[in-house]
Amino acid sequence: MSDPKDQTIDITVDFSGGLEILFSNEKHHELSVPAQDAEGKPANVGFLINYLCKTLMTDPRADLFVLGGELRPGILCLINDSDWELEEEDAYVLQPGDNILFISTLHGG
Amino acid sequence: MSDPKDQTIDITVDFSGGLEILFSNEKHHELSVPAQDAEGKPANVGFLINYLCKTLMTDPRADLFVLGGELRPGILCLINDSDWELEEEDAYVLQPGDNILFISTLHGG
Amino acid sequence: QRDTSRPLTEEELDRYSRQMIVPGMGKEAQLRLLNAKVLIIGAGGLGCPAAQYIAGAGIGTIGVVDGDVVERSNLHRQVGHSTSRIGQPKVLSLITHLKELNPLPTYIAHTEHITPLNAADLISGYDLILDCTDNPATRYLISDICVLLCKPLVSAASVQTSGQIIVLNCPPTPQGLLEGGPYPPCYRCCFKKPPPANAQLSCGEAGILGPVVGLMGVAQAGEAIKILASNLHIPPAEGEERRPVEPTLLLYSYSLTSLMGPFTFRALKMAPRKKSCFACGEGSQERLTLEGVKRGEPNYEFFCGLGAGPKQGVL
Amino acid sequence: QRDTSRPLTEEELDRYSRQMIVPGMGKEAQLRLLNAKVLIIGAGGLGCPAAQYIAGAGIGTIGVVDGDVVERSNLHRQVGHSTSRIGQPKVLSLITHLKELNPLPTYIAHTEHITPLNAADLISGYDLILDCTDNPATRYLISDICVLLCKPLVSAASVQTSGQIIVLNCPPTPQGLLEGGPYPPCYRCCFKKPPPANAQLSCGEAGILGPVVGLMGVAQAGEAIKILASNLHIPPAEGEERRPVEPTLLLYSYSLTSLMGPFTFRALKMAPRKKSCFACGEGSQERLTLEGVKRGEPNYEFFCGLGAGPKQGVL
Ligand SMILES: [Zn+2]
Ligand SMILES: [Zn+2]
To answer: Which residues constitute the cross-link Glycyl lysine isopeptide (Gly-Lys) (interchain with K-? in acceptor proteins) (chains A, B) (predicted)?
Structure first.
């Protein structure tokens, strides 16, 4: 068996409402992310957000995605199309095949 | 083990575009259907269509759903949101969890 | 005034027959529409198409709120105005168009922007509110007043190639009530905090495609008409079986480089009324009142951080 | 005539700036729209909202085809007409409205129904066709001519509380070509046979809700604008990477008794061009020709079984 530290989980991550600009202007990403964080705990959505900042973000303006260590106000996180508040927010542990969607709240009209 | 003739498969069947009128005006149905046809072959979509006529249809006008032994012209069958012509049409063998959607072609405007 | 059993006039039958014969409509539902009062806040890219279908359906009283005048740069998407009415107040321009479409409804022009001072007076006279505005401060204000006055709210927004729509506070539930829920969310339940000012982009600054905002506006009219026709805004009677509360945010992602596909529309499941919500949650009656709003509490401009730095080109 | 590099006029910049600044648009895409010619067939519940946004976006030449006159019972959903224009040809009424919205495009009125005799002449002068008609015979005719003349087709339909939209034949592919595919489908690839006449229901007989057909019409304008702005209707050059063909039928299921939810919009994956298709498949060049259509082959009225018995109240 491989070292648990090298194991990965396959998930999809989507950006919408303009956030895709921060991630090479791609709305849909198929990713293999580490199954554990640095401390050996199962990877959760909080871990994923930091991981995306470090590995997937192509725009230097990280504060448009994460602010004060948290998801920037005005961004919703949806876990398999449900508001993450219906799950355990950033403590939700990633499962293979999960879809994580980040959308920016719109105000124009 | 139970007799294979008594085994069932859980699927969902949806009707749209007006066809729901023939099925108690319900668009969404969760069904347990026989896993085999009378000859002991695995249940396919062709079997399902006849089964729906016999067990689910509440309107006497069966010819608005089946005509000459086939799905009435102007009705599309979608297997898991794909045109059944991308699968094997009525020969497609039902799998647990499948969604079968029947829609009527619209022409108004 | 709200006569629910009168016969329809010949002209009403003629105008509304095509919708009255749709299964689930009928005379009773049409009379509900004829007796209903709808307030459309914003006469722009959302409000114009929404108003066309609200008026066409025969909603009896239609109020329109907007303080702007028509500009030439509006006309690619604000299809209720016209070149000859450039410079006119948007509300009057739109009502001119609506009267031509359907002269039967009563149209009420509110040629001013909605503010904490006038919001309750504007909203109190109507049965259902459409938020067709263009900035976060106004969106939080409208939702708060709808919670306080028990009005259902159909809220949509759109910028560039994206759109969002959600029905809020429907059926309206007394402020602070959580027992016996889940109850429908308000705008703050879904969108707790606005983005920082540098991440708020308007259609004027960031651009907008006409059909994107247009589709959201038409969808708003669709939700409003069903709510009023089917009485979905009337809280269920004691013992009546309650429809499950399944708040849905519809996301519209238009792509300029690919045809409509599986991700064009996404229905997102939102949480119901939240215990922690400032406006409708536990103890909210102490935090949010009609008098407070008029006095400037909460301070919507401050909350939404207007003027807090340069914009950075991301929504 | 098709100047792809001229500067925009001050009025054009003013009118189109809000869509030009959307990422992915810009001056080049706007010039493509200004040089494009779009034919809207049907000036009813689909054609009216579609035309508003097609005109607003600055499509250079806009043709409208319809042989009907405006009736009062149209106005709840046909928002490009007006009470004062009841009795006028729909095409002239709609163009009056569009000119008020945007006087810059060239509008061409075709105040007649499309028929096998005039279809090729009507369609040949345009770059992209919107099928906004209301009966199956016309829908098969329009698709066949679009196959024969290599025109992309944005087709939508709506009755009661349901709507459908699909982009067909885009990019257009020579009739009968299958090698090197998959290629985009035509209307017959998707809908091989019409329903029997007793199962075909029109908006006039079965009813229609305004926002349902309106939403489909706006969506048609959205697809048309992206196709023309991004040149999606131009077949890829030799060696150019081809977008995968993923034909999608979007289904809109409006419910009068429940709010928008997960099943309101469904994107259905359709098959690409079919070898067996009468119009575009193998050997189709022998079966379907421009001369044949003019001579009455195929017979669209017979194929769609008009007048073949009483209607039964199901779509
Ligand atoms: Zn709330
Ligand atoms: Zn074909």
So the answer is: 109
